[in-house]
Design a protein that fits this description.
There is one protein chain. By secondary structure, this protein is α/β, with parallel strands linked by helices. The protein folds into two domains: about 15-240, 3-Layer(aba) Sandwich (Rossmann fold); about 300-535, Nucleotidyltransferase, domain 5. Helices cover about 35% and strands about 20% of the residues. The protein is built from 20 helices and 24 strands. Strands 7-8-9-6-10-11-5-12 form an eight-stranded mixed sheet, sandwiched between helices. Strands 13, 14, 15, 16, 17, 18 and 22 form a seven-stranded mixed sheet that branches. A three-stranded antiparallel sheet has the order 20-19-21. Strand 7 and strand 8 form a beta hairpin. Helix 1 (about 30-40) packs across helix 2 (about 45-50), helix 3 (about 70-80) crosses helix 4 and helix 14 packs across helix 16. The longest helix has 16 residues, at about 120-135. The relative contact order is 0.08.
């Protein structure tokens, strides 16, 4: 439509800037202007495409014409309380929520919008785009400006936008109506940060949170996106890949790949919204990508329960103990072993809990699950937890182990001076446990439902002749799986649950399992295992290193 007149006589700008209206300036409203203002207030897309200007890298200052996916994003930001957008790079996502903020500030009174990014300069740059667009609005659309600097835009209708980094204290003390977080996947201190800022938006009934980012591994953002995609957490989910941008075709893709030295994994993460894990993981990458976590039936104090105890169910709990000083985690996981596939029914991990309290929680949960059998890893403070369970809680359903020569350890009945209540993890037992864990998961004979456990599997990678967590990551929950996998191939376990793990896998999937086990070298399982596997599947194993 034709440009509307400003209808402001003797206009004087904010701090001498004639492009910005200062407070208290009167507009001479006409019926035409009033109708146009009402139309902009009612229809954000019309307002943006008619009056918002952006700077194009090739064409300079131009009107902002929304693409289809940008309209989808804008509508979700306006209509939904929670929106999460996972996007390719350079799709104009920042410009969309600049448009949303601009429209919201002008047509709503008494609101505060927090605009946060993983770096303060990124948040300020986005606010700069909003301010540039504001300068090029007709004066009759502008509110008078109270505050205008690199981190704050405040208008005379008492609405404001605050730009900051994603530190725990970023918006402490503010009551936010809308929280926008750019590059949400790249926030390292997410738990601390979100615990601090979430109360700023949780008190209202119309408050909004908007998360936008490219992927960055299987972290908090991955969890939010997968739960949103499966409609589990109340977020409106939007995914924008590279090919939704006009002009991006196969030739464009090949040019970008060439610029990335044909690093396909990098392209998939940056432009195809792939939440890629690490390379060299114990579990096959395709299998890891197919693993989906469940929403817990119950979650409290780091306890997550995925299935209720069944009356006649048989359960096994494996326990990994740390010192409770904020470093490694004390963890346990409980499996339903009544039948295969084995189901993870409960998980716990905490990096501050002390051994006494940890033993109390293990005891309580295992009693709940029909007196689940417990295998405690005795390394470090594990012996203390084992003793508390047995002597303090008088818990009898505990596995014991004894030396088995070249095979490392074996599970045995009863307790004597030659046995331990629990197991000491050695190179031999860990290699064998990793081998069995790979076999169980990749043959769909073990179902993992816990998000944190799955996330640890994505960074449980090869190092020298073994597997462990990558630098800066943890593997305490995975080690509970490794202990369970090792246990599942022990004769005592087979007799207890009446399941021969390898035979069950062979029957479920009639193919040679040797390829799955070969990466771990060789471990001698003894003649007993040889007799349980038909000749075509037999393989000898020997400890690495």
């Amino acid at each position: 439509m034709a440009k509307q007149p400003d209808n402001i006589p003797d206009f004087k700008g904010y701090n001498g800037n004639v492009n910005i209206k200062k407070i208290g300036v009167e507009v001479q409203w006409t019926p035409e202007l009033l109708l146009e203002y009402a139309k902009c207030e009612k229809d954000a897309e019309y307002f943006v495409e008619t009056y918002m200007k952006i700077v194009h890298v090739d064409h300079g200052l131009i009107p902002f014409i929304l693409r289809d996916y940008q309209k989808e994003m804008l509508r979700s930001m306006i209509e939904q309380r929670r929106t999460v957008v996972v996007s390719a790079r350079q799709i104009g996502k920042s410009t969309v929520f600049s448009a949303f903020v601009l429209w919201s500030l002008i047509f709503n009174s008494d609101i505060t919008i927090g605009l946060l990014a993983n770096k303060a300069e990124v948040a300020r740059e986005i606010l700069g785009r909003i301010q540039l667009a504001y300068e090029h609005l007709p004066k009759w659309l502008q509110q008078g400006v109270i505050k205008w600097n690199e981190s704050t835009l405040e208008l005379e209708n008492n609405s404001r936008c605050i730009a900051s980094s994603t530190t725990a204290s970023a918006v402490r003390g503010y009551s936010l109506n809308t929280l926008i977080i750019d590059e949400a996947a790249h926030i390292d201190n997410w738990d601390e940060f979100f615990t601090s800022v979430f109360p700023t938006i949780s008190s209202g009934e119309t408050t909004k949170i908007i998360l936008v980012s490219t992927p960055c591994g299987l972290n908090h953002f991955y969890k939010i996106c997968t739960e949103a995609e499966n409609k589990l957490n109340g977020y409106s989910f939007i995914k924008v890949m590279w090919d939704r941008v006009p002009g991006r075709d196969e030739k464009w893709k090949q040019d970008i790949l060439a610029g990335l030295n044909f690093d396909v994994a990098k392209f998939e993460q940056e432009f195809e919204c792939a939440f890629a894990g690490s390379s060299g993981t114990l579990i096959n990458g395709a299998k890891l990508r197919a693993m989906a976590h469940k929403k817990p039936l119950y979650e409290s104090s780091n306890i997550k329960q995925y299935f209720k105890p069944e009356k006649n169910g048989v359960y096994v709990c494996t326990v990994d103990v740390s010192r409770g000083k904020g470093l490694d985690y004390s963890a346990f996981t409980i499996f339903d072993v009544t039948k295969m596939p084995y189901e993870q029914v409960c998980a716990f991990h905490d990096n501050y809990i002390v051994p006494m309290d940890f033993a109390d929680i293990v005891h309580k949960l295992c009693k709940t699950y029909n007196n689940a059998w417990i295998m405690v890893e005795l390394n470090d403070l594990g012996q203390q937890v084992s003793d508390i369970l047995y002597f303090t809680h008088e818990y009898e359903f505990m596995f014991s182990t004894e030396s088995a020569g070249r095979a490392g350890k074996r599970v045995t009945a009863g307790y004597s001076k030659n046995t331990q209540r629990g197991m000491t993890t050695t190179k031999i037992t860990k290699n064998r446990g990793c081998s069995m864990l790979k076999l169980l998961i990749e043959n769909d004979s073990m179902h993992i439902h816990d998000f944190d456990t799955i996330a640890e599997l994505h960074t449980f990678s090869r190092k020298n002749a073994s597997y462990e967590a990558e630098a800066g990551k943890h593997d305490d929950l995975v080690m509970c799986l490794v202990i369970f996998a090792w246990l599942s191939d022990e004769q005592y376990f087979k007799d207890l649950v009446n399941i021969n793990t390898i035979e069950e896998i062979r029957e479920r999937k009639e193919e040679d399992i040797s390829d799955d086990l070969m990466p771990f070298g060789f471990v001698d399982f003894g003649d007993e295992l040889e007799e349980l596997i038909e000749p075509s599947l037999r393989i000898r194993f020997w400890p690495l290193g």
